[in-house]
Design goal:
The complex is a heterodimer of chains A (124) and B (378). Chain A is α+β, with helices and mostly antiparallel strands and 124 residues long. In chain A, 21% of the residues lie in helices and 34% in strands. In chain B, a hairpin with a 4-residue loop joins strand 16 and strand 17. In chain B, helix 2 crosses helix 7. Classes of the chains: A alpha+beta (124), B alpha+beta (378).
Chain lengths: 124, 378
């Protein structure tokens, strides 16, 4: 199962469509710098694609985390809340943000694959 | 639609070195400046507190005021004792407008009885120089030094590192300075800074700035530090950032900067008043009840950073003020801020709420600096 990327620099791993994993990209955490705080969405709440679902802050900046796909949040990463630096040290693994039950899996098709995101991020 | 053409950014004498070191460059005060190096803001901040950090602050304005009347003339622009500042000593100063608002904050140094050396904020320097020229240009020579570089070396190991290049520099104490020869050029050095640490600021001819920076970076204690960490270090030290925490709409008493106004310039002093906005500023000092707002330090009681422009509400939900600088302090390891509150809510320990993304975050008024300063007072 491949990972998809949004233009807002989130990644989605939808290997399990009932609990697709969302996080911020290597590029996003690098641009932000040392992450010191995350605000995570409410479990059980449904968000539309593009909604603000959280916040990630470094010492120097704050950024919104947008929902890359429509769906209900089924789990949030409490370990990340306790240690926000996981978003820097392992953004694609232990630094995940939340899991979403996909309402419309076809939305994934419009997201970028790794190659497309790589050139998008390089030009951003 | 096309973006408006950006004004070309100026560069400091260290531009090539910043790029070589892998700095992330950002526009700041009209210059391309390093916001951080590959180590990152947090590591740079902590390194400065533990050892020594080198900062490029060449964007700041440097100028000399020369002539037998220079000190008396400069004193007419600030609520500060300039005349009695001894040769070899440095002091904090505030340029005021006619309403007592702060045009800029600055450092000035008595080079000789008839000469002052002044360092002003980069974003304000053109306006400051015009202001000084206009008001006292007939009483003394106003000599900007745009070709000079300015480096800051800050941290508990700064003196040891700098003394290896310049034996004797360790004998300076906080807020004193002097001239030193290095590799055929003259450096002007003060023992001061903007981090709360012991350290030095070094004015160096532009053509020698890179060589000096490389010689300092070759010392084992010294690493390059960007503007990001400069901001978090100064905020932990409780120091104002012009444009954020003070501006032309804030007076020194509102900004809790009365400590910068020596007794001789206050009501009853030998040279009371005689600076722009004196009636208002002295009245605010003499009758603190006149103040509508006062700058305070704040600590969040939850681990949520509270940033500039965040609204502050009283516990009963009334808007009462605003945060002007705020971040998670890397050394204090909690969210800290500066902001303005009504005097009735400005006492240390008072609780207020910051409205962060619509949610109240409890904050408590705290004494500043947030960390004990470690200046070398000798």
């Amino acid at each position: 199962m491949s990972i998809k990327y949004s233009k807002d620099h989130e990644w989605v791993n939808a290997a399990d469509a009932s609990a697709a994993v969302v996080g911020i990209t290597v590029h996003a955490q690098d641009a932000l710098g040392d992450v010191v705080f995350v605000d995570l969405p409410e479990v059980g709440k449904t968000y539309a694609q593009g909604d603000v679902a959280g916040v990630v802050e470094s010492v120097k900046a704050a950024a919104d985390v947008y929902m890359p796909v429509t769906g209900e949040v089924v789990e949030v990463n409490e370990a990340l809340r306790a240690d926000p630096s996981l978003a820097n040290s392992d953004p694609l693994g232990a630094g995940w943000f939340f899991k979403v039950k996909l309402a419309n899996p076809a939305e994934l098709d419009a997201l970028m694959d790794e190659t497309a995101y790589g050139s998008f991020a390089a030009s951003a | 639609m096309s973006a408006p053409a950006a004004t070309p950014l100026l560069t400091t004498p260290l531009n090539a070195l910043h790029l070589e070191l892998g700095a992330r460059m950002v526009p700041f005060a009209g210059y391309s400046m390093p916001v951080q190096y590959p180590a990152g803001l947090m590591a740079e901040h902590l390194h400065t507190r533990a050892q020594a950090g080198l900062f490029d602050v060449s964007h700041m304005g440097q100028l000399r005021l020369v002539g037998p009347d220079a000190a008396a003339a400069f004193e007419t622009l600030m609520p500060v004792d300039v005349i009695d500042l001894p040769v070899g000593k440095q002091r904090y100063g505030l340029l005021l407008n006619d309403a007592g608002g702060i045009i800029d904050d600055l450092m000035f140094f008595r080079v000789a009885q008839d000469e002052l050396f002044v360092i002003v904020n980069g974003a304000c320097k053109a306006g400051d120089i015009a202001h000084i020229q206009q008001h006292i240009g007939k009483r003394c020579q106003v000599l900007p030094l745009p070709e000079q570089g300015l480096l800051a070396l800050q941290g508990p190991q700064a003196a040891a590192a700098l003394a290896r290049l310049l034996p004797g520099v360790e004998q300076l104490v906080f807020m004193s300075g002097g001239h030193f020869d290095w590799n055929g050029c003259t450096l002007f050095i003060t023992r001061s800074g903007y981090t709360g640490e012991d350290g030095f600021e070094i004015s160096v001819p532009g053509a020698h700035t890179e060589a000096l920076a490389r010689a300092l970076l070759a010392q084992p204690e010294v690493k390059p530090i960007g503007l990001g960490a400069r901001n978090s270090l100064r905020l932990e030290a409780g120091l104002c950032l012009y444009g954020n925490d003070i501006d032309s709409s804030t007076t020194p008493p509102e900004a809790a900067l009365n400590w910068a106004i020596q007794k001789v310039r206050r009501t009853g002093g030998a040279r009371a008043g005689g600076f722009p906005g004196a009636d208002k500023v002295l009245a605010q000092i003499d009758q603190p009840a006149l103040l509508q707002r006062k700058r305070v330090g704040l600590v969040a009681l939850e681990r949520v950073p509270v940033r500039e422009h965040t609204a502050l509400h009283s516990l009963d939900g009334q808007p009462v003020g605003e945060v002007t600088s705020g971040l998670l302090g890397p050394s204090v390891d909690k969210p800290i801020a500066l902001g303005y509150l009504p005097p009735a809510l400005a006492a240390v320990g008072t609780r207020v709420n910051a409205l962060v993304r619509g949610k109240p975050v409890p904050m408590e008024v705290a004494a500043t600096p947030f960390l004990p300063p470690r200046y070398h007072r000798g």
